[in-house]
Amino acid sequence: MVKIKICGLFREKDIDYANEAVPDYVGFVFAPKSRRRISPGGAAALREKLREGIVPVGVFVNAAVDEIAALYRDGVIAMVQLHGGETDEYIDRLRERCGAPLVRAAGAESLEKGAPGSFPLCGPAKAEYLLLDSGTGGTGRSFNWKLLDMLQNPNSAGRPVFLAGGIGLHNIDGALARKPYAVDISSGAETDGIKDRKKMIALVQRVRAYRG
User: Fold this and answer.
1) What pairing do the DSSP bridges indicate for beta strands 102-107 and 161-164?
2) Cα–Cα distance, 76 to 21 (Å, whole number)
3) What are the pLDDT tens digits along the chain (212 aa)?
4) DSSP bridge pairs for 164
5) Residue 175: CA count within 13 A, CB half-sphere
6) How far apart are CA 208 and CA 183, in angstroms?
């Protein structure tokens, strides 16, 4: 069954909507240049209100290892999503300080430039999950989702893939048809740049109803 993550929650209402919609994951963005950025204290306050069973994911771009470890230690996040230029050495240091499962993000152009074995996340990277987007940093744009087949090929890494990039009610069925591990939605769950209760509920319902 495909799972769903709603990313970029930063208001108390966003948590209320998530608690009603009940996605599998929610994302707190700590990247400094994101318009959805939330402070550690703000995330902690929202985490306290989050319904049990919904997994909180911290989204980071080249953050200090100590910052991530503290958020995990304090129970604010349960998973870590990396969107920067973090190296395997960085991940090793993070593993020493933080036991959270890792999601490593990369742009689809990485796949277009070479065979699956050359995709940075298929070989040496040390993450339990991959996230494939149209670019880095959450562009809100779709890409050729057929590229996902390269990652699901038995000769590739075989890691579970979060599919992101411009997914919304208008194309959620097409995204589900690619059978990713999960769909990762941010702007597609918004109206005028803020989370939309009706869209969040409708998106989760579409994912739950999918039987492909």
Assistant:
1) unpaired
2) 20
3) 999 999 999 999 999 999 999 999 999 999 998 999 999 999 999 999 999 999 999 999 999 999 999 999 999 999 999 998 888 889 999 999 999 999 988 766 655 555 444 444 444 457 899 888 765 555 556 666 666 665 554 434 567 889 998 899 999 999 998 889 999 999 999 999 999 999 999 999 999 999 76
4) 184
5) 29
6) 12
Structural domains of the chain, with CATH: 3-209 (3.20.20.70)
Q: Give the DSSP letter of residue 102.
A: E
């349960």: which residue's tokens?
A: 78
The pTM of this model reads 0.88
Q: 71-76 long-range CB contacts below 8 Å, 24 or more apart? A: 71/30, 71/40, 71/43, 72/98, 72/99, 72/100, 73/98, 74/44, 75/47, 76/28, 76/40, 76/43, 76/44, 76/47
CB of 57 within 8 A of CB of 25? yes
